[in-house]
Amino acid sequence: MEDNRNRFIAALWWYVIHNFEIDTIAHKYLEVGHTQNENDSVHATIERASRRASVYTPEQWSAVIATARPDRPHIVTDMEMEDFYNFKEMSNCVHNIDTDEDGQKVKWTKIRVMEFSKDEPDIMRIKYFYDGNTKFVQLMKQARQTRQSNPCQQLKQLRSDCIQLPKAKFNDLMKLCDKKLIPHVHHAFFRSLPHE
Fold this sequence. Notes:
This protein has helices at about 5-20, 40-50, 60-65, 85-90, 165-180, 185-190, and strands at about 25-30, 115, 125, 135-140. It is α+β, with helices and mostly antiparallel strands. The protein has a four-stranded antiparallel beta sheet with strand order 1-2-3-4, with helices on one face. The longest helix is centred in the N-terminal third of the chain and has 14 residues, at about 40-50. The chain starts with 6 loop residues before the first helix and ends in a 5-residue tail after the last helix.
């Protein structure tokens, strides 16, 4: 959980509070050693199912995941390029993420609770202990900007072109196809991959 206590998650919740009909967000982090959740068993089930399957393409992964639990199939949503957004770029719009209202440095790895409210959308409330005092972080030190005048609230698509494979990697894949180590039925997929 340590890796998602950062400016990108803060920018995500800031964006959501500004742009969706959500009044409050409370993001609570579990104590170290108490982080097991339902997703752990989901991942284990998928891993066991993948050992029994030959997977060559992303579409096949969708099928393996969906059928990993036959009695209650997982719902899989296949993502397209336009489904991914650039929160890293948008996080630069948040002017202050490092100091609280007392001028103290925000201790990101110690945060236990991060809260946002529609009433004060540019304030991030943090707690270092679940029952501790609340600290305030003024995310936008400039005068409050309205939704219409804030260009930062326009979330942009992450990329419009596919990432190209390096030429050497593409050539290696072609050799696997030529040697029939990748079944012929999948050759069209691999030959169509964008590459240098």
